[in-house]
Amino acid sequence: MNVALRTSDCIKCSACNTVCPVVSIDGISGFSGPRNLVVDLPRFFAGRMISSQEIFKCTTCWKCEEVCPSSLPLPDSILRLREMMFNEKNLVEGHKRIVENIDRYGRSIEPQLGERMVYVKHEAEILYFPGCISEMRVTSIFDATVQLLEKADVKFGIPANWVCCGAPLEKIGDLNRLESLREMNLMRFGRFDEIITSCPGCTTQFFRHYDRDPLHTIEVLWEATRKNRLKFKPPRNSIRVALHHPCHIKRTIGPQIIDQAYDLLQSIPKVKIVELEDPDKCCGGGGGVVAGFPDLALKLATSKMMDACRSGADILLAPCPFCVLNLRRVDIGRVEEFITFINVYAEREA
Amino acid sequence: MQRTEVLIIGGGITGAGIARDLACRGAELVLVEASDFSNGATGRCHGMLHSGARYAVNDPISATECAAENTILKRIANFCIEDTGGIFVSLKNDDLDYADRFLSSCKKTGVAAKEITVEEALKKEPMLSKEIVRAFEVPDASVDPFLLTLGNIESAREANAIALNYHSVREFEINEGVIDKVIVENLRNGSVEIFKPEIVVNASGAWANKIASLANLSIEMTLDKGSMVVINGRLTNGLINRLRKPSSGDIIVPSYSSSIIGTTSIRVDSPNENKATEEEVDFLIRETAMMIPDIAISRAVRAYAGIRPLCGSDRSCGREISRTFQLIDHSEQGIENFISVIGGKLTTYRLMAERVSDLVASKLGLSGSCKTAIDPLLSVNREDIHARIASSIANRVVRKSLLFANDVIQRCTEELRGMEVVCSCEEVLRGELSYWCNHQDVKELSDLMRRTRVGMGYCQGGLCIFGLLSTMIDHSDRDPMELLVRFIIERERGVEPVLFRGQLKEEFFKEHLINGVYHLDAYSRGEYEKDLER
Amino acid sequence: MRKILNVETDILIIGHGAAGLFSGAVLSSFGKQVMIVGEGATSTSLSTGNIIFQRDFDGNVEKRKDREITISEALMPYVFREHLDTEFINAEIRAMTAFLLPRLNNCGLVLNGSINRNQVLLTNTGFPYSCTFAQMFASKGDLTNLSEKDIALLGLLGYKDFDPDLAALLISKIMNMKNVSAYWTQISEFRRRYGMHPTEVAHLTHNDGFQEQLANAIKDIDCDAIGIPPIFSLLDYQLRMTELEKRTGREIFEVVTPLSLPGLRFHEALRLAARKEGCRLSEGLKASSLRIIGRRAESAILKGKFMDTEVKFGCLMICTGGLLGGGLIANGNKIADSFDIFQVEKMPNFTYSNTKYGVHSLIQMIANYGLKADSSMHLYLKTGERLENVLGAGSVLEGCSFPAGLGLGGALLTAWISTKNALEVLDQ
Q: Which CATH number fits domain C3-106+264-427: 3.30.505.50, 3.40.50.300, 3.50.50.60, 3.40.50.970?
């Protein structure tokens, strides 16, 4: 009882299991699927321990909630189950590392470079929150975002000594640490209400737990092109690109951002957009799955990259650092981060 | 023609209890039931093991009986009882004097009631309304009536009793004030069987008068309909009772993965008027939501009604009639070897059976004494089973499988598709169904339901029916279409009064599956419906 | 504090089921800017993919209003009551099919080009049901001569949605076909003991050696036509089935099972078709309110998780579906649309048979409700005013919802006629 949120209106249509990316790879025997975990299992909760392995396989792609005819809060219930089952001693290897890194460095990943500082000349009106991955792993996002914001005349600053937004902790169920990170960050944001983020994980986290109204970089750029602050030059040769719709943009921030991303791509001359068969299929990069179950994440990423190859695109664009990180583990095809790609062709409007 | 010492008519809990008691005393007996065991009021009750508290103030005899039986049943039948405990709560506008009378009456009748603070009550039952003013803890419990009945049947069979379901009594041949022969129709194949009993016991509950009329007798009794609603999800840890003079919409019983709310009390003329109405559902939800507000926003899955066979017919309101039982020896009315038993409750079935058996034994001159209060109903060795399949599933399977746990588990583990979950609402395995399909008692798909809980969950047989059917046809040569349509109609009857919100959507979805994919609209339902009415 | 984003489009379609996607595809093909929003599973994807435009009932006659009409007439979308003109409807169906077939074909569905009557489709109970169109969407090849052939049904251990024993038994009983036999086979990767989900199976079919194992199992069966469960995904089933036929020299067809409903495949194909035509699909947005000024709808507020959008449009199409899809809401005994602003009417009550199993009578009664529309598909406000630029399509309309109406066939047909009127509205 009280294990999961309200799920009594399930009609057992199995739509959630049908769209679940993990079920399609791992099977019902490896991952029971959203309905079984959230609706059926709590009915028998008293008699059974959930295998902690299983519940951490969910990539929190939110697809199940999207297709649910009764709009049941399935992913939120899974997170709730994780929260209830959180036990520092029983974490899988990868999740243990996340917790250690956060305790030691304030980042979800081990820093490979020193903290990257940008000295901005102007008085900041808005904050840019880089996020762990953009800062340390897919560093081109950080650079590209800073350059783009400058091109678009956005007067931004980067908060000093920021810490991880806490999204990975939410995914593994460690709400205590999440709370302390939240307080640290809020203190450092100070008077700034508006925050720009380049990582959908951070954006969602600020929405869900910080009670802030963050902007994703794509929104800022879209506004800038609308107001004619940015223009785009064509690439030397025409390029065919496909756009991956990251789960945490499309289904947690909102599908509007994907529309804006299309608008941006369409305004670059000689860039041709090809359609993926299933553009919002999860790449496996979220939910702490890459850290916890790297093999599963790799299988999901491979399936995504096969789609991209089939579509005939030269480059697969992914507007999310987690997706980029995971998709690049696959040997086939070329993956580029969306903002980095845009930055190459964006110019300040004279 | 078959000679027997005792013929028991009725396979509800009363009949099953008598069969067990007499069989254990060494009587030779046959029990006949017109449909399936526990298909009458037994299977349509609340599943509440009374502590006696509910009757303490107004019906002290029932209360005393319940209090004693409660302890006995928890000891002998723990396999089908969830000892959850219960709480009686007074709400703001309730008569507060009643609470004091309640406490003193409980003391007098031997009911173990104890006042707890509102805070304690809320801690035990977080879903309780914040409006409660007083709370009392009592040893109520939740009992599975199907399992209890089947447990008694199997126990009687172990003692060499014969129990037959789908055997309907057609006629008595009376010779000089003695029932000489009982003509019984075997509903499986339409054949007629003749029994020559020394004593006939009429334990047919709401149908008692119908059976008595075969001997040109009539019994003074009242038929009283009580409706209940199944709410999806276990909203409470234990039973919740409204502390007031017993009336409608007082009780919430957690049962497996659902909560059952009830009941109403409406006089009816025939035992076949057992359908809950929409008005009753509305009323029950409104009343019980005063205690557990979440009920108002929860999903009602099903509504059902049972017919209480109450003693006497003098008073107008069913609630006024004592819930105690009555034993009628018809020798006073000119039939020497005919006994009827009416009234009573699920909780006091054992006591009723003991009294009936005492009378029968004295008539037959049997020497054995009643052991039902001491001997456990079933004894199954669970240890080696748990080693064989995952323990949580094993727990449930063992609980449901009565004496046959070993065979059932063997089917599950050894059959090719034995571990497939056929019904995911209630986690029923194909192996379990496969075992029961072969069992002599099982005729309809709903018989499987009473034994394994398949199809009882919130989808009400929407997704499991075809798995169920495919298991059944492996072991039966009945027409699969007939089986299917009968089961669907049976389930629909209970869903009709709760067609709103979640369940309405569910039924629309099922309509897509059943009529869209399977095109059942081409198959006749008329005759099955008539059949069910019978 | 929520952000409000402002966008504009020619046509906003609310609902991403058959009616919404199909309307979107048609309107986009005319060069209009189309935005489709919707949330939740659609009844299309939960349906059978059974597309019919007329139901055949054996000459039963039911009384409706003051005149007698045949049931096949009654089951035409009720909105066409003004002109129950079979000629007109048939012409529209032909035009619609000509538009739809090549596009779906392009998105992976195998289709024949003609509408044949009384073709047979096998479902997993083995229920052969006659329909006019469904077979072409759901299965492969021409199955008209099935009853003359020896048929084998092959079950895969672990794929629990299809039980060939049950299917074979039912077919032989119901169709009086004595030539149906059942087989099981074991595919080595299948976890047979617990049962697998169809998507998992679809994924496994990509493994090396899967096709060969299946082909070998089929070769072992001495039969002309062999039915297998629908295990391949939309995008490669055509290829796989052809390959299997080549390898085995048998005629292979798919049977339909409830959890791998062909409706899902149809929905996926339609979705891809709409996107290829250039529709902007924003799934996950819920249209929460409409701004209506006078007799025109101006804009709609779309609610996302964290962000709202206000969309201005020239024309609005309501394709939100029936009770299962969420376009209609039952509140007690009252049925309302999800915005609670349109006029909801109840089609005159009729049941298509009392003596048959038929449909649950209450469900049937509720399914008769829907939005009132005139024959040009314009919707009405509760106050009785006809809206100039708001059109309806699909099972949200009165009498179009399954099981009272035609289901998918009705949805597509009303959508087709709606789009014509939508183009007119935009031209004005």
A: 3.50.50.60
